[in-house]
Amino acid sequence: MSAINKLGIKYSVEYGKPFGCSKCGKRYKRKIHLNSHLKYECGVRPQFVCELCSRAFHQKSNLKAHINVVHFKMKRSSQGQTQYNNSSDAEDTTIMDVFYE
């Protein structure tokens, strides 16, 4: 089942994702997310590379999450505080500063 929104765009009512990629068919609720998909993901090589292990990501946020989880092993405690499980906090801070500019 489909409908037409205020802008005259036909979309799928079942999923509420009116914006679809013409290349891969992936659908998005917001046009800005489709534009981001087209610019950084669909048919594009990953451009954000981890300098610690060379793994590549399509989105910078995924690279940051990878670095935090895999290389810094960040965990949230039950009190909401961040804990680091690396041996050298000074080295970690220096590396983290590079990725969070």
UniProtKB/TrEMBL annotation:
Keyword Zinc among record annotations: yes
Keyword Nucleus: yes
Highest taxon of the lineage: Eukaryota
Primary localization class, coarse: nucleus
Subcellular compartments: Nucleus
A Gene Ontology molecular function term of the record: DNA-binding transcription factor activity
SMART domains assigned: ZnF_C2H2 (SM00355)
Boundaries of every C2H2-type domain copy: 19-46, 48-76
Biological process according to GO: regulation of transcription by RNA polymerase II
Record key words, sorted: DNA-binding, Metal-binding, Nucleus, Repeat, Zinc, Zinc-finger
InterPro entries: Ikaros_C2H2-ZF, Znf_C2H2_sf, Znf_C2H2_type
Transmembrane segments: none
A Pfam family this chain is assigned to: zf-C2H2
Entry's Gene Ontology cellular component terms: nucleus
Name under which the protein is recorded: C2H2-type domain-containing protein
Organism: Rhynchophorus ferrugineus
